[in-house]
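Board notes (copied after class):
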Amino acid sequence: MWTLSHMTPLPRLIAGAALLALVGCAQLQTQTKATPNARTAPAGEVMSFTIPPDALGAHDPQLTAVLTKAGALAAAQKRPATIQVAALTQDFRYLNQALWNGVPAQRASYVHLENLTVNASQPYSVTIRTQD
């Protein structure tokens, strides 16, 4: 399981800010060990969260900030990272742009963005994994 103590100071700061933003945005729900339906994070998974439709539909500024911080978190990893976005096709532009806004230009080659199309009944999600 990922913890802030496993990271160097700058990525820890970015990750901490991203987690605080998630905690501050009550609508975003992350999976942690404290939840009854918690799962064990796969090897290499840095962070995963679901996006509620009401936050996405309004292009909520808090959601945009969280996505930007998630992009920065992916870029701050020691190993190349993949950001996997699961959403409907029409929403990828907004989601991808918000994520890329957090990736510094000099780290862009270390981040791979992968879009997975879901159907309307499936939840939107963002997962960051490091490559082994």
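Comment from the instructor: DSSP finds four helices and five strands in the chain. The chain has one domain: 4-130.
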